[in-house]
Design goal:
The chain is α/β, with parallel strands linked by helices and about 300 residues long. The chain has a single domain, classed as UDP-N-acetylmuramoyl-L-alanine:D-glutamate ligase (3-Layer(aba) Sandwich). The chain has a nine-stranded mixed β-sheet with strand order 5-4-1-8-9-10-11-12-13, sandwiched between helices. A four-stranded mixed β-sheet has the order 3-2-6-7. The longest helix is centred in the C-terminal third of the chain and has 15 residues.
């Protein structure tokens, strides 16, 4: 069995649906919510576990009810949780995600105590795939350096110098347009493919040995193969909640890049995963089955 390791932020998502965004100063009664674990690297880990890739998940959890719920999700897909560290002085981070039923737009409030870095990194296996999200950049750097022969994926949506520096350590960087714009120094124009090409070229100049995949939300993802810059589109789906699209894309890409080592197919798996994930509420609850992804791939490519 292929083995993987995912290191990054663990949090709990509380998804709330509203008919319209409340005005400032108002009081709104909410009776329905959808809760599940979150965090990019841990969402990738749960997806990999669900899709049959052996996976160890690394990060910090608090000593509270949300930590217990997250552990139950990890256990359900048979993740190796030996590298989860528990903080008895800090709560598990919480994200409250308010979703407008009509527009599908969302507003996110992240609540967390002080940042805590992982202390122990005594891994007793060599992974075929290493995934980090940059939240714990010091530990991510150590992990990427420790397993240079694994497929190394950085899920980059946190815009800091420390995460910029991680790009040199990763084999594949999946980044948001905001991250790509800041790292490249080129202004992103969503209506101009020329601006995207310029961004990609600048990213490569600064990171020659790294393959960049730029996540374009509903427009798909940009990548390069055989010196050709391409865009793989998202599939047309009825969208209920698209806030977890980046995590879902990273999951689909990470799965296929370790199984097939084909960047073009991996990007398409990422787009399929993100498209299917948007059909329902809650990123982790909406992870499609591997069979669904393969069926859509066969039908469309």
């Amino acid at each position: 069995m292929l083995k993987s390791i995912c290191l990054g932020r663990n949090k709990y998502d509380i998804n709330i649906l509203v008919d319209k965004m409340p005005p400032e100063g108002s009081t709104v009664e909410v009776f329905n919510k959808v809760g599940c674990g979150g965090g990019t690297a841990s969402n990738v880990a749960v997806s990999l576990g669900k899709w049959g890739i052996g996976c160890a998940v690394c990060g910090i959890l608090g000593n509270d009810v949300y930590a217990n719920k997250i552990k139950e999700e990890f256990d359900k897909v048979h993740l190796d949780t030996r590298y989860i560290e528990q903080s008895f002085n800090n709560d598990t981070p919480i994200s409250t995600i308010i979703i407008n039923k009509e527009t599908k737009n969302h507003t996110i409030y992240n609540l967390s105590d002080k940042f805590i870095s992982i202390k122990k990194m005594d891994y007793d296996f060599t992974p075929d795939l290493t995934v980090v999200d940059g939240y714990d950049s010091v530990s991510a750097k150590k992990l990427l350096e420790r397993f240079p022969n694994s497929k190394r994926v950085l899920c980059a949506d946190i815009i800091t110098k420390e995460v910029f520096d991680l790009c040199h350590k990763a084999q594949y960087v999946i980044c948001t347009t905001e991250f790509a714009e800041m790292l490249s120094g080129v202004k992103y124009d969503p209506n101009s493919t020329k601006s995207l090409a310029s961004i990609y070229q600048e990213l490569k100049k600064k990171n020659l040995n790294t393959e960049f995949i730029i996540y374009l939300k509903e427009k798909g993802a940009l990548y390069c193969v055989n010196n050709q810059i391409k865009i793989s589109p998202m599939l047309e789906m009825e969208v209920q909640d698209n806030h977890g699209g980046f995590d879902a894309f990273c999951s689909g890409f990470s799965y296929d890049i370790v199984v097939d080592s084909d960047i073009e197919k991996a990007v398409k798996y990422g787009c399929i995963s993100a498209s299917l994930n948007a059909r329902s509420i809650g990123t982790r609850l909406s992870i499609p089955t591997l069979e669904e992804i393969k069926k859509v791939y066969e039908q469309n490519y």
